[in-house]
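Exercise: predict the fold of this chain.
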Amino acid sequence: MSKKSKTSISKAEKLLFERVLSDVKPIENIPHFISSGQVAVKIPQRIKNTARKNMNTQTKSKPPLKPLFLNNFLPGRAPGLDRSSAIKLAKGKFTIQGKLDLHGMTQRQAHAALIEFIQTASNDRKRNLLIITGKGRPKIEDEVAGYGKREGVLKRIVPKWLDEPPLRGLVLAFTTSQREHGGAGALYVLLRKN
């Protein structure tokens, strides 16, 4: 019994292919040539000029890069952050230059405080910050024992705020802090250089 090669095509497949392509027509009035399996199309000059103009406006008003959350960090893969700085940040091996405790604040108060704190720190050329969100508070006694754990609202939403304007352009990276600085209830935040 002979085996069919992987590249062989059955008669049914060939007929189906020909039927599908039966009404396909080439595009007319576009100069092109075929060279080594690739199709090259001549692009009119007005389209090139428009594309170049759009590229120039995009580079001038380019949105800031998204901050990197380092819990999923692959060393050496962070844009704008060298490997040693990323590892130092994740391990908490830097001097904390500013600390903000959001305990007891409403979402609105915490959001306003976070924006003001990070903008002020950036203006003061501080880069290494600690944001304390808390871990959340259980509502009933069963949750105290570890059943039905709830994550705190601020713990969940602060990373989202760090990734949105106006903070997105100021924050380079952030990660969950080490146990001595609050563990899962706090974040190390590294600001971009001014």
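Check your answer against the key: The two ends are 72 Å apart (CA to CA).
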